[in-house]
């Protein structure tokens, strides 16, 4: 019969707990709590004037308009982007904001800092930013035309 002392029980328990912790860390590749799998993110919220977090690179603005015919005419305060799934290469995002029906997003590009490197499927929490173009809707184009040519509009109405 094997006799187990209290100190051996504690040692076995400590080794078991260490092995469980090691296995858990190994399964995530030693990632910290600030790493999240990009495909698991369902919604990202971006705010005007706020910056992303950074670990390996530099912070970026959460929201950045990079062009479009309506750029510099309006900036949304908050934009939410929803994960629509993958095309096999990248996550596809649908971005929306509360803004006038005169405007719409053109191109949207969500980018996040890879946790270990730029190709890592895990990203640093809070590191995402949105670059977008802002375009006029047909209604917005008509309103801009009306503002630039008020006489033409009056003549047409008469």
What is the H/E string? HEEEEEEEEHH
Quick one: overall form? elongated
The low-pLDDT segments are: 9-28
| Major pleated sheet | 3 strands, antiparallel
> What's the total count of β strands?
8
Mean pLDDT: 84
Share of residues in strands: 25-35%
Structural class: alpha+beta
Separation of termini? Answer: 108 Å
What fraction, in percent, of the residue positions are helical?
25-40%
Strand order of the biggest β-sheet: 2-4-5
How many helices?
3
Radius of gyration: 26 Å
Give the secondary structure arrangement, pairings included.
Blueprint: H1 6-27, E1 35-37, E2 43-47, E3 63-65, E4 78-86, E5 91-96, E6 103-111, E7 122-124, E8 129-136, H2 138-148, H3 150-157
Parallel strand pairs: 3-8
Antiparallel strand pairs: 1-7, 2-4, 4-5, 6-8
Helix pairs in contact: 2-3
Describe what this molecule looks like in 3D.
The protein is of the alpha+beta class and 158 residues long. Helix content is 26%, strand content 29%. The chain contains 3 helices and 8 strands, in the order αββββββββαα. The chain has helices spanning 6-27, 138-148, 150-157; strands spanning 35-37, 43-47, 63-65, 78-86, 91-96, 103-111, 122-124, 129-136. The strands form 3 sheets. Strands 2-4-5 form a 3-stranded antiparallel sheet, with no helix packed on it. The chain has a 3-stranded mixed sheet with strand order 3-8-6. Helix 2 (138-148) packs across helix 3. It is elongated. It starts with 5 loop residues before the first helix and ends with a helix. Mean pLDDT is 84; it is low at 9-28.
């Amino acid at each position: 019969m094997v006799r187990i002392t209290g100190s051996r029980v504690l040692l076995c328990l400590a080794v078991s707990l260490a092995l469980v912790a090691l296995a858990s860390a190994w399964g995530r590749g030693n990632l910290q709590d600030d790493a999240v799998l990009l495909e698991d993110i369902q919604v990202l919220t971006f705010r005007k004037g706020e910056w992303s977090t950074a670990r390996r690179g530099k912070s970026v603005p959460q929201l950045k308009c990079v062009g479009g015919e309506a750029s510099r005419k309006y900036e949304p305060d908050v934009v939410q982007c929803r994960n629509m799934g993958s095309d096999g290469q990248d996550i596809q995002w649908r971005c929306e904001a509360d803004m006038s029906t005169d405007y719409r997003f053109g191109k949207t590009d969500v980018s996040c800092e890879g946790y270990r490197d730029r190709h890592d499927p895990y990203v640093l929490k809070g590191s995402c930013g949105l670059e977008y173009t802002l375009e006029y809707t047909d209604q917005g184009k008509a309103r801009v035309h009306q503002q630039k040519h008020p006489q033409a509009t009056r003549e047409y109405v008469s």
